Amino acid sequence: MKRKTWQAPWSYREGIVIASGLVLIGFAMQLTLHGRGIQIPEWPGNLYLALSFSGILALLHLFYRNSGVVKWFRSVPAAVTSVALYCGLAILMGVIPQTKSSSGFINAIGLNSLTSSWLFAQANLYFLSCLGMATLKRLVPFKVKNLGYILNHLGLWLTLVAASLGSSDLQRLSMACYEGKVEWRAKNENGRLVELPLAIELKDFKLEEYPPKITLIDHNSGKIVLQNKRSQYFSLADAPCMLGNYRVEVEKYLPESGYIGERFEPVNEIGAPPAALLKVTDTTNGQSSSGWISSGSFLQQPFAFKVGDPYSLVMLPPEPKKFQSDIRVLFPDGEQYTTTLEVNKPFSIHGWKLYQLSYDVEKGRWSELSVIELVRDPWLPAVYIGVFLLLVGTLFLLRDGAAIKKGVHHDLD
Amino acid sequence: MTWINFEAFTAVSLICWLAASAFVVIKPKSRTTQVWASVAAIAGTLVLAIFIGLLWLRIDRPPMRTLGETRLWYSLLLPAIGIASFRRWKYNWLLLYSLFMGALFLLINLLKPETHDKSLMPALQSIWFVPHVIVYMFAYALLAASSLAGLKAIYMDYRRKNWSEVPDLADNFVYLGFAFLTMGLLFGALWAKEAWGHYWTWDPKETWAFITWTAYLIYIHYRYQHNDNHKQAMWILVIAFALLLICWFGVNYLPTAQNSVHTYSS
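Output (structure tokens, whole complex):
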């Protein structure tokens, strides 16, 4: 017998209708509000929201657990359709650049700022309601055999709730620090200057580089000759090497040099680029010649070595290996800390996390500027608890594997 | 020239894998040829493992930075999973497919050579780098195996042959693969917090990793209730793998890619 739509028990048809309904309402909301997205309230508003949401789910589970709608929310069709809606939105986000679009339509319905759109918030709410009800079903009453299920579902629910509601309390500021100066103002994501309850003194900025690479270019077109070949360039540290038909040997290498007369000499001053004297042998005719190359710097011109028409050897600007800032963090009450910031090695202090972000790229290792990012995310512990539950949950997935599907470890709904 | 000869290693691996395939194609039913096929396949895979090990030593950093380098790991792990499953379940076609895919990715690397240099940008210098990439490559290889099973099922269905045991095999791969996929995603998030200041920024690569993850989540939940609708399930598996490939390679060609922080090829 054929079941009518909305006749219990609901299934995929209702799931698809609900998902499409959310899409339409989401776009309509966005249009009526002239493209203004949804604003998550800041602390403590978001906490109240999180508590009320959990409370409503818990009450529904405790008092209406056998109602058709509640049953449906924790059903597989609801899970599949709500995940599919989420997946569909993510695909839109993965294809449409999330920046101001040239299309007025895309701007108007919020497709270029999906994470703050009504549609995304509704999809999130729908998904988290389904996930929440499903979790509660296995959580209350608790049974040990449901542990893997609970870890995976509760972990995901907690991570997503904390991450989405906590996003309004997230502060990401970037501070431009100059060597020898103390700074206490930083720019927020909208470019506004904010005064901070702490100050940073940049004592020293240091940058280490890899040995420079050399490559063969066509000096008429400026293009790399051996593009898409396996040895299109090589590091000076690996010399001697072959570039095309040329055998290249390094006769002299100067990490810091100055161009004096017709040659390079070692110098010790700001903006002194690396230079190398090369011996190049054309293997097709055995002829060799010597010449200088240099990568140049923000103060000096690069220097190429013509090895035969139309080929020249050039030195590429050295790539950064490591950059770090020696800093002192100061608080108004006189408290202070000295530390070194490095990429991948942030420093945590009083709820703030300090990161080495960037520097004056043009000046490279002579940069006196170090950009430090300051991040404050009070919801991070909740997110991390969720992530931890999920990670433990994956171990259950590995152990139980496909047995889960066959209902060996869990009774089917 | 101190470069390790990639062509020579690849040639030996490919010949071994070809020999393994020949064994199971010529005498599919024989126990002895299955043993010989395993020996040849393992030999080819070991040669590739030695190459990756030497490359790692030579360039002084984990060879996991560029797409070409991740393809090497895939060419190693997929045949490894194929061989292990072949020993366990004795499916000849699974060995053939996984060796074929491994060989295909090696050939792509032969045709699209990359310069493996020593530089590793500071963002990648982290204890998370190796676990994040290895776990992901392992997940990708397992999920590829599941999609090969899915394609096999669809093909057998088209030829009106009995394929009733194939979906169960696909499920075994999906559950293992999904566990690793989840770990890879979470390791990535934990690493991003240390390197970039936030665990999730909807960077195009992250967005597509999330899409891939939700696609397999749909498959798992669909299978949970509809254990008999094999055909739809196998199609979900094939689509999910297409999304995975976009995440791995396709992202670079999308209009969103210009703002990605996940670009490490020079």
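Chain B touches chain A through 64 residues (CB under 8 Å).
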